[in-house]
Specification:
By secondary structure, the chain is mainly alpha-helical. It contains eleven helices and two strands, in the order ααααααββααααα. A two-stranded antiparallel ribbon has the order 1-2.
């Protein structure tokens, strides 16, 4: 089981590294700019860290590893989902604005402000895990089973499991809010709208972790660790494939469509009948913000 987990981790790391390289190579193209280039880099970096989490749980657990796992789980996952949430909310606020965005409101939608908000949301589980670890330190439980032969099981204490589930509830809450914003943004112009992919990715993410909770509590020992590691990998692959495969497909296979002129012309053609002054203003603003 450990070998299988290591192989899947390596595949995820290599796949994410290739995606980062493709995004950097095509950083001046329309599809990368429209998906918020800087935040996409951070999102891919946090996804890369997610694929390294199973390395920390393989092998015999110690008090240090049991205390470290909640931090290694919460930091990249909360950052990944927070960035996805803020990207969706930003897109929705730009295109649904009924009036021209003021300079003050425009500043709230810049990449720097969005990154600070993502860091702030990521600090919540860090504070929770720190306080929990100080109040109830993690220890290793030793369970001896004697059925047909003597078997000794080493596993983290129930305090670690409870903390892990608590942090997971926070991450799932962010994912559900993100899925709600993605649903509201489903009718935005298609060329500037990755909301449907975000919605499907968050749905798959929530489905993975909601099925994880009852299964995790019904197992122990190595099987428990294997379930946690595979769920981490499955959720990482789910977000990576659903959110980024359509973009990579256009960048590699249909490079002619990856131009600003095509994006603008398609936007005008698909919205001629319903285009109004406010929509044109928000379109121009979103293009200018993407260039910035």
């Amino acid at each position: 089981m450990g070998i299988a987990v290591i192989i899947l981790c390596c595949i995820g790391i290599v796949a994410t590294g290739v995606l980062i390289a493709v995004f950097i190579t095509n950083r001046e193209t329309a599809i990368v700019k429209a998906s918020n280039r800087e935040l996409s880099y951070i999102h891919l970096a946090s996804t890369l860290v997610i694929f390294t989490i199973p390395f920390s749980v393989i092998g015999k657990p110690t008090a240090a590893s049991c205390a470290l796992v909640p931090f290694l789980f919460s930091i990249p996952f909360s950052l990944c989902i927070s960035i996805t949430l803020l990207k969706t909310n930003r897109l929705l606020r730009i295109f649904q604005s009924r009036t021209r965005l003021t300079s003050a409101r425009s500043n709230l939608l810049t990449n720097k402000v969005q990154f600070v908000r993502a860091i702030a949301l990521s600090c919540v589980p860090i504070i929770m895990a720190t306080v929990w670890t100080i109040v109830k330190p993690s220890v290793v439980e030793i369970i001896t089973e004697e059925v047909t032969e003597k078997k000794v099981i080493y596993q983290c204490s129930k305090n670690t499991d409870t903390l892990l589930i608590t942090l997971l509830v926070f991450v799932l809450f962010l994912a559900l809010v993100c899925m709600f914003f993605a649903y509201k943004a489903r009718k935005l112009p298609e060329n500037f709208n990755e909301a449907k992919f975000i919605g499907f990715a968050m749905f798959g993410f929530c489905l993975c972790w909601l099925s994880f909770i009852p299964t995790y509590y019904d197992t122990r020992g190595g099987n428990k660790t294997f379930i946690f590691a595979t769920t981490v990998l499955l959720s990482g692959f789910c977000v990576l494939s659903i959110m980024y495969f359509p973009k990579i497909r256009i960048m590699i296979c249909f490079s002619k469509k990856n131009r600003s002129e095509v994006f603008r012309s398609n936007f005008v053609l698909t919205n001629t009948s319903r285009c109004n002054k406010t929509l044109r203003q928000t379109f121009c603003y979103s293009t200018r913000l993407a260039r910035a």
